[in-house]
Every structure is written in C-alpha cells, then in structure tokens.
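A reminder from the course coordinator: this example appears on the midterm review sheet, so study it carefully.

Given structure:
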C-alpha cells in the first residue's frame, strides 16, 4: 500500500520576546501564526469501514492539534526562562496566558517543540512528516522527520 501525506492548517495568535536579542524582536510583539502539520501513513484498507482510505481522520488531526498546540499557544505570551524572575513576575501580572520555555521562542525552536508534542499523541501507523510554522506571511520555519 502506498504511503500518503495529509496536511491540516491551523491559525493562532501569539506574542513573544527574544531574550537579549540585538534587534526589535527583543520587545514583546505578536504574530498571526499559520501552522501546517503533515502526517504520513498508509491509508486504511478496509473497504466497508467508514474510514476506508484515510491515513487519519482530519477531524482527529484537528482535535489533536487544537488540544495540544493551539489551545496552549493562542493569545499567549511565551518567553525564555533566562528572563530574570522579577521580570517574569511582572509579565505574569499583565498576561493571563503566560508561558515560560527553556529556549529562545523563535520560529525555528517553536517548530521543534511543536513536533515533539505532536509525535507523543499520534496513533500507531501514523507518523509526523513535517511541521511548518509561518511567523509572518513571508517567513516560516520547517521541521522534517527525515532531517531528524
């Protein structure tokens, strides 16, 4: 049976700041992110099954990514744990959705983080092929399983 790739696109708003960055992104700012998640697997081969021909039901992909990724990041402020605790406390007071991560929250690091989360929740026989995260309409970072 041939392997097929299926992709679902998601959208969320998120703010971040790049710790000690030497440009404007050192300031808190937000983006309208577009996330594309591509899975690969063999389509189900059970002619009388209602999900015959599916690698993974798009509804299940949507549920997984919305639950594990979008609900976590949408309208959140994400910062590097290297930011001094005093500053973190001030940011927590003004941001209801505040996330601290152990990395610089660049698009490149975010796709790695997102890929790790998604891989933990995939059913048997379905693998993560790639993750693409658009930070702007013209800038994105990609993660491919074949590179990792």
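Designed residues:
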């Amino acid at each position: 049976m041939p392997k097929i790739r299926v992709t679902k696109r998601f959208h969320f708003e998120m703010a971040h700041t790049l710790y000690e960055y030497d440009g404007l992104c050192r300031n808190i700012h937000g983006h309208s992110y577009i996330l594309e998640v591509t899975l690969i697997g063999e389509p189900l081969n059970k002619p009388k099954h209602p999900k015959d021909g599916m690698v993974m039901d798009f509804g299940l992909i949507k549920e997984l990514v919305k639950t594990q990724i979008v609900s976590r990041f949408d309208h959140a402020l994400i910062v590097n744990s290297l930011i001094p605790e005093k500053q973190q406390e001030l940011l927590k007071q003004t941001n209801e959705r505040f996330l601290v991560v152990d990395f610089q929250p660049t698009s490149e690091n975010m796709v790695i983080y997102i890929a790790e989360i998604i891989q933990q929740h995939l059913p048997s026989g379905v693998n993560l092929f790639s993750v693409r995260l658009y930070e702007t309409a013209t800038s994105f970072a990609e993660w491919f399983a074949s590179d990792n």
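Residues 58-73 form the longest helix (16 residues). The longest strand covers residues 4-16.
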